[in-house]
Amino acid sequence: MGGSDIVLERLLKLHPKKIDLVLDRVQRLLAQLGHPEKRLPPVIHVAGTNGKGSTCAFCRAMLEAQGLKVHVYSSPHLVFFHERIRLAGDLITESELAALLEECERVNGGAPITFFEITTAAAILAFARHKADALVMEVGLGGRYDATNVLEHPRATIITPVGLDHAEFLGTEIADIAAEKAGIIKRGSPVIIGAQEDVPRDVILRRADVLGAPVTAFGQDFFAHQEHGRMVYQDMDGLLDLPLPRLVGRHQIENAATAIAALRVTDWVKDAAIEKGLRTVEWPARMQRLTHGPLIDIAPKGAEVWLDGGHNPHGASAVARAMADLEERAEKPLYLIAGMLANKDSVGFFSAFRGLARHVVTITIPGNENSLGAGALYDRVRAAGLEASPAEDVEDAMLQVSAMARMDEDTPRILICGSLYLAGTILAENG
């Protein structure tokens, strides 16, 4: 266990709840640290239910293609905590992370504060101490009371598609969730709205209007679609003929378009940087093709193996569309290997795959106390109308898929899905 891991273990004990949505504690600590949030480079602040991470990745790739130095804050991490903090292009070092966490722990003086709040304060302190041209900051949960919402004047605010998730914290009505996400909008700062359903879009527009924040909305002010193997983007400034994003799926065209709109509204990048960013963007566990490693070694010969961390019905619909598009290009039976947390709408998640997935093998997410058991998840898959079977672990699940594929004499397409925590475990175990 490294030095930062030891400190992170201690920080988990500073508050009885993992999540407690208020801003008082992080504002207090930032004041004690000398207000580093007031010394940040220009910020793009990103909230939403789905597509936040991908949109941040597109923003980072395009800004870096312009030759700019970019900080990035994202969560959760997949394998190592260091993934959450990128300083001017590089992940934070172990020595700096440990020192920052210890400094924040010392200044906090044992006062109650959640894990996300104190680690966000540490990230902000790091961003303030390192020079960069931009900071791309992803909201952790919600928006209005998220620990990242301590920014006074972001260069731009992005709200990606809003759907039902985290109902225990944000509410069960889509309008209420949208209002929480819209809480990051600041007076006068441009707001870029990704593809939205009518209700959340209206909520976001009303909030922007109250604050006098100029709006650029998908489907109204900018558009994007796939045409002849290319991405076509259009806004008030004209049309761009672009390569398809490196990230797979129709939803990634919308995410890329939202990032492009934000960077064009703020006049941050030129067209050549947009094109290069689409070609070079990276974001693990979002429709990621796995091509080697121990897990691939036991997969059926010739099988396609994909990994995605989507974990709610809206995200499942996007991934299901991407799988359907792959099926149109090359027919292969689809098998799912899935693990999910107990607080997620697993029936709604799997319903998106009805008529598409041949079979679902359920597993318990290793080492996660909040995971549904493989048996309980099997029941929910069946309730969603799909064939299923439980497995002991990922290896057993892959062996089950291999056996079914041999019986059917098919070369399968396999999607490992249901949770970012599962995705992180897969990436770690598969090297």
UniProtKB/TrEMBL annotation:
Pfam families: Mur_ligase_C, Mur_ligase_M. PROSITE patterns: FOLYLPOLYGLU_SYNT_2 (PS01012). Keywords: ATP-binding, Folate biosynthesis, Ligase, Magnesium, Metal-binding, Nucleotide-binding. Gene3D superfamilies: Mur ligase, C-terminal domain, Mur-like, catalytic domain. The keyword Cytoplasm does not apply. Its EC number is 6.3.2.12, 6.3.2.17. Residues 301-419 form the Mur ligase C-terminal domain. Pathway: Cofactor biosynthesis; tetrahydrofolate biosynthesis; 7,8-dihydrofolate from 2-amino-4-hydroxy-6-hydroxymethyl-7,8-dihydropteridine diphosphate and 4-aminobenzoate: step 2/2; Cofactor biosynthesis; tetrahydrofolylpolyglutamate biosynthesis. It catalyses: (6S)-5,6,7,8-tetrahydrofolyl-(gamma-L-Glu)(n) + L-glutamate + ATP = (6S)-5,6,7,8-tetrahydrofolyl-(gamma-L-Glu)(n+1) + ADP + phosphate + H(+); 10-formyltetrahydrofolyl-(gamma-L-Glu)(n) + L-glutamate + ATP = 10-formyltetrahydrofolyl-(gamma-L-Glu)(n+1) + ADP + phosphate + H(+); (6R)-5,10-methylenetetrahydrofolyl-(gamma-L-Glu)(n) + L-glutamate + ATP = (6R)-5,10-methylenetetrahydrofolyl-(gamma-L-Glu)(n+1) + ADP + phosphate + H(+); 7,8-dihydropteroate + L-glutamate + ATP = 7,8-dihydrofolate + ADP + phosphate + H(+). Residues 46-262 form the Mur ligase central domain. It is an enzyme of class 6 (ligase). It comes from the Bacteria. Functions in two distinct reactions of the de novo folate biosynthetic pathway. Catalyzes the addition of a glutamate residue to dihydropteroate (7,8-dihydropteroate or H2Pte) to form dihydrofolate (7,8-dihydrofolate monoglutamate or H2Pte-Glu). Also catalyzes successive additions of L-glutamate to tetrahydrofolate or 10-formyltetrahydrofolate or 5,10-methylenetetrahydrofolate, leading to folylpolyglutamate derivatives. Belongs to the folylpolyglutamate synthase family. This is Dihydrofolate synthase/folylpolyglutamate synthase. It comes from Rhizomicrobium electricum.
